[in-house]
Amino acid sequence: MFTGIVEELGEITAVENLDDASRFRVRGPVVTDGAKHGDSIAVNGVCLTVVEHEGDEFTADVMAETLNRSSLGALAAGSRVNLERPTAVGDRLGGHIVQGHVDGTGEIVDRKPSENWEIVKISLPADLSRYVVEKGSITVDGVSLTVVDAGPDYFTISLIPTTLALTTLGIKQPGDPVNLEVDVIAKYVERMLGDRVLPASAAPASSSAAPAQEATK
């Protein structure tokens, strides 16, 4: 489990494309300190397993499902990436519960800089919009962020100077893809409620009927 607090801005040093997978070599002096085979490291929000570790670099295999579901397939040697090691039991949860299991990708739509922060608008896949709420949590390229505004096909985030300087979100431009992981608690709640959560089409038409529950499907 991760918290979405990026530890360092690393770099892809090599990509080996296989038949149905890719092998990445990643440089990250902080996250490789004490790393060993089998450890987990989040790369742009995707939980990867350390295959080899030498010096300040590690290699990780990325299967086809991950390449298809995330933006990792667009990475090449020289790409900058957000890196985070799993949180240790007993540590402070600085961000929110992040699994490193990407739900889909969005795209930077617009950036509006101001004196002390920057508002970034990101497109949102239709099947994920029901999990994103104003002032809720979302993970973007592995960064735990608070949603400022949530629309049907977009959301906005506000980035402080530290986030802009120390993560890929400071260099991504309109048109660039980003990995999205919604709050896992929302998905569990939806699964447990099941059919008790009514779709919008099932809402009563009469104003005298009992109010329908909020649609989530």
UniProtKB/TrEMBL annotation:
Gene3D superfamilies documented for this protein: 2.40.30.20
Pathway: Cofactor biosynthesis; riboflavin biosynthesis; riboflavin from 2-hydroxy-3-oxobutyl phosphate and 5-amino-6-(D-ribitylamino)uracil: step 2/2
Catalytic activity: 2 6,7-dimethyl-8-(1-D-ribityl)lumazine + H(+) = 5-amino-6-(D-ribitylamino)uracil + riboflavin
EC number: 2.5.1.9
Stretches of the chain forming a coiled coil according to its record: none
NCBIfam families xref list: PRK09289.1 (NF006767), PRK13020.1 (NF009566), ribE (TIGR00187)
Lumazine-binding repeats: 1-96, 97-193
Name under which the protein is recorded: Riboflavin synthase
Entry function: Catalyzes the dismutation of two molecules of 6,7-dimethyl-8-ribityllumazine, resulting in the formation of riboflavin and 5-amino-6-(D-ribitylamino)uracil.
Superkingdom of origin: Bacteria
